[in-house]
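QUALITY CONTROL LOG
STEP: pairwise intake check
CHECKER ROLE: data steward
CRITERIA: each record must contain a sequence immediately followed by its structure tokens, with no blank fields

ENTRY 1 OF 2
RESULT FIELD BELOW
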Amino acid sequence: MSDETVISTQYWHQLDDGRIQCDVCPRLCKLREGQRGLCYVRGREDDEIKLYSYGRSSGFCIDPIEKKPLNHFLPGSSVLSFGTAGCNLACKFCQNWDMSKSREMDTLADRAMPETLAKAAQAHGCASIAFTYNDPVIFLEYAMDTADACREVGVKTVAVTAGYICEAPREAFFKHIDAANVDLKGFTQDFYWKICGGHLDNVLETLVYLKNETDVWFELTTLLIPGENDSAREIEEMTQWVVENLGRDVPMHFTAFHPDWKMMDHPRTPPTTLTHARAIAMRNGVRYAYTGNVHDSRGGSTYCHGCGELLIERDWYVLGRWSLDATGCCSQCGTAVAGVFASEPGHFGARRIPLRMADYG
């Protein structure tokens, strides 16, 4: 791959009316020459769809993996996080809107080619790299090449995504991914359309695909917004669907909303709402349900579904008690715990280390 930041892409086709349709995500933007899709980083140029953000990213820092959040993927390890400009959804509550809604790529982003990112992650002992802050679906070519560079040096890749992607690119993308946290933003078509500008069915298709057709370890996150997607009925329906279609072992994270972007008029999520959602999930058969964005050690810790033993104690992003054996089973009763575990936990803690990619170029 050259050092250019604009590259040709694969997933598009010509329409009879002269427009070109981008086939990466269900938005299916239909573009004339010079137009860009809603994501902003893909657009029509020279009668094809090009990606304008290849090798351009920002927000470089090393985080605890639990911040993604992933609680069952190499707990305690560090992950190099970054994102780009743009997004293919229009969530009114976006908490990374300064990046995802940016139209100033040249001032927002720095050059970071795949090999540079892999080198930086390896140099800092990161177990993985995370595509986060905005959705890697829109820069999938860049993400896939970065994943390949990482695998060459023994670093895994994590996608933090809304799962809003079409069938062919979905299959190609997730072949490169080791773990994912998928935002299941709500469980009604109305919420997805009015609040996110998308469709629930497309996300559910991605989740079923991940479960049945891949070896990707994935967890789910739902940001509970007061009065929008936090009703007991919606959480009942969501968690029942998860158990029936994805199984009992997919971890679910219920996280707290704070006013942001275009939803400044909504209150913060009460901690009791998260605790109640977690209880509903576990009652419906979800073995690993968590609360997030609040200080709740019990709601953030992992327990054995066999004997109830505290397996992984968490205080925010700091691990405490560890009761898994070297094979990832409960040390008390031997019940296997779903996930990807090292023989010992990592000890990165709650640090956040900003990086400059220029130091590794």
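ENTRY 2 OF 2
RESULT FIELD BELOW
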Amino acid sequence: MLTVNIHEAKTHLSRLVEQAARGESFVIAKAGKPMVKVTALDAPAAGQVRRLGFMAGRIEVPEDFDRMGEAEIERLFASAP
């Protein structure tokens, strides 16, 4: 993996970012000590849309979901008499 010092990274940032975006991660070092690793983000491909509700119809939430465990929670947090 490529290691560059901070000055070189500042000078060639655009080129280095393009390389990282293509999957060629690199390390930025200060005085020879590795400080950070620059790598591409896992972003959706162009035209790919992340959508809400992709599990619709595949799972079912019980009607009493918001009341499940109500008695136990009340018992745990009830103030002393």
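INTAKE CHECK: passed for both entries
DESCRIPTIVE NOTE, ENTRY 2: The chain has three helices and three strands.
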